[in-house]
Structures are given as structure tokens and as C-alpha cells.
Amino acid sequence: MRITRPTERTRHETIIALIDVVFFLLVFFMLIGRMDATAPFDVTPPTAATGADMPAGGVTLSVGATGELALDGIALSVEDAVARVGDMLTAQPDLLVRINAHREATLREVLPLVTRFEALGAREVVLVVTPPGPVR
Where does residue 39 rank: exposed (0-12), middle (13-18), buried (19+ CB within 10 A)? Predict the structure, then answer.
């Protein structure tokens, strides 16, 4: 009886390892990337003495040092920004409204916005601040 060995099949190159690497990179950049909208101008929030972590979700209104406004990264006038937030609050009454004001912005530019959003039915308006640095 003669026993023959089976012929070896050539292995094809697989791309499974490449797919794994691509998904790893995708997840990595999604985790380290900034997920919120940035304003089209410089906004440096004031430093907080105390405070809690900012809740996620909602809409962000950025106020520049000279009073310019941007809603989720889109520059708008005061009336347009208030109207859009009003429409969003009508569609989603529990919407969180975040105000990210530059440290040089005056209260006369920020506080009327808070009042108008509350009048539109906003249940929660959060002012964004920078956490304090280490105590020296």
C-alpha cells in the first residue's frame, strides 16, 4: 500500500490584521478627538473656584471676548441664536443649554442670554468654566 501525502495548498494573504489595525485607529481617534463643536473665534472660559464636571449633551452657545456669538460652532446674531435655541427647546424640553463665555466677556452680554433661555423654557443652563489649577 502506497501512502501519498496531500499536496500543500498555498496560503492566501489575509487582510484580517489590516482590518484590525484600521478599526483600532478609528476607535483611538474617536476617543481622543474633540466631540463638541468649537467656536469660529477664540473662547477661553474663566477659571472656577469650585464646581462639578460638566454634563454631556445639549447645545453650546459660545460668547467671544467682544460679544460675538456662535451656536454649536456656527456664528450667529443674538436673535438668531435665541430663536434656534427656542426651536430646539420646543422639540426637546429637557435640552441642556451650555454657555461657553470668554473670560473677557462681560456679564451684561452673558446674563441676558441666561434669562432669555429660561424664559423659553430651558430647565438647565450651565456656564462653562475652567477648573482651577494646582494650588501652589
Answer: buried
Tens-digit pLDDT profile for residues 39-79:
788 888 777 666 666 677 789 999 998 889 999 889 999 99
Any residues with CB less than 8 A from the CB of 37 and at least 6 apart, and which? 60, 72, 73, 74
Spatial CA neighbour of 127 closest among 118, 114, 109, 116 = 114
Q: Give the pLDDT band of residue 83 (cuts 50, 70, 90).
A: very high
- Check if the beta carbon of residue 97 is closer than 8 Å to that of residue 59: yes
Q: What is the CA radius of gyration of the chain?
A: 26
Residues contacting 69, CB < 8 A, separation 6+:
61, 62, 63, 75, 76, 77, 78, 81
Scanning the structure block, which residue is given the C-alpha cell 489575509?
14
Q: How many residues does the chain have?
A: 136
Give the span between the Cα atoms of 38 and 98, in whole angstroms.
13
Cell of 107: 456679564
How far apart CA 114 and CA 124 sit, in angstroms, is 10
For residue 20, give the C-alpha cell: 484590525
